[in-house]
Amino acid sequence: MTNERTPLRALGELLRALDARIERHPNYPDLRNLRGLARIYSGDHDGAFADLVEALRLHSQYEAALVNMAWLHAERREPDLVRAVLREPRGRRLRPGLRVHLQVLEAQVRDGAEAALGVLDAYAAQPRPEPEPWHELDRLWLAVQLERWDLVDAQVRRLVAQQAAIGPILHQVGLVGRGSAGRAAFATWNQCYRGNPHVAALLRECARLRAAGAAFSDCEDILRWSAVLSLDLCDFWLVVGEQHDFEARDADAESAFRQAMQFDSRRAQPYIKLGQLYAACGRPQEAIRELQHAASLQPRYADVRYLLGLLLEDLGQLPEAEGHLRTALDINTRYTLARLSLGYLLATRGRWRDAVKQLEQVRAEGLVSSDLETRLAEVYEQLGRHEDATLARQRALSPESDTDDG
Questions:
Q1: Which end of the chain has fewer CB atoms < 10 Å from its terminal CB, N or C?
Q2: Which domain CATH number covers 355?
Q3: Is the dihedral of CA 107, 108, 113, 116 positive or negative?
Q4: Domain end marker among 185, 212, 239
Q5: How many other CB atoms are found less than 10 A from the CB of residue 46?
Q6: How many Å apart are CA 309 and CA 339, to the nearest integer?
Q7: What integer pLDDT is reported at residue 379 of this predicted model?
Q8: What are the angstrom distances between the C-alpha of 23 and each of 28, 31, 32?
Q9: How many domains does the chain have?
Q10: Tell me: the pLDDT tens digits for 88-121?
Q11: 3-state percent breakdown (helix, strand, coil) of the chain, nearest 5
């Protein structure tokens, strides 16, 4: 599924990029989850299992990693293990519609596509079923498997009726008609989907890589596939905005991020991206406004708190900045960059004992930096720890410390 004609043609490139990022940031569950998903598509099921286990160790309530673990079991034709995920405490806490999606996976592996369609029909017949966009994709996936082209046509019409903006994108990737071209496009769609809309996250990362390499037309094609594999037009516009941002088209990027908000105003990510754009454009007050809104939508998002801390510190609002940095560390105790920034801020405020505690922990977490050692030397001097200060200055001059804090 990685040749040049498939949406996942940049999968090998993405895996190499994820390897490098995880080497730098081994404690980021998002990266572990994404690499686990990529490894499933590359056929490395054992490596995928290790990554997903680690993602769930780092973040025990990580819903996406739990769903991907169930999907890995489905890919390995292990229906009993899919059911085991549903029965464990974390699986029982999943929203009902998502639990039904996993039941569809189990039924498809155990009894085939017709049985899986039966699971969807039974749930839809309940008095008040919770709407779940994934169910619409599951129906299309199963109909294509069964080569029930009447159901495929009906499902495509249903998708467009529910979200008119998806219609043109379906046409652009060829998911129309029953001719050979249309059937080939649906076969490609099915090979990518395979019962997991999270594949769209892989495609968005592939698109980002192609955009960074200035392969913009390829980026746009991959993005269109990501949209029809997830129905997530909010994320579609987010990556379009990132592409414009990369090209320094600030007004177009701002417009794209606002488009993303229109498709899902309850999601924090569009506000984060817009806040980052404003910060890069030298508009800190507007950046803080957007990031504060993001924090209200997703209070446990450590990166938002970290960015707010940096912006508020730049504006001289040091107590508020400290509060956000400490919140980032409460959320993610392994957030080394937030701890580094907090240590620097505490030193700026003359709180030497608090500062040295944070900065020594940064070093213990493996961040090696000449700037860190220089700042530690200054803090040690303020505390009267002159021998420690001398050692820190020596470390600052060593080649091992000649690295970037970021």
A1: C
A2: 1.25.40
A3: positive
A4: 212
A5: 8
A6: 11
A7: 97
A8: 10, 10, 11
A9: 2
A10: 999 999 999 999 999 999 999 999 999 999 999 9
A11: 75, 0, 25
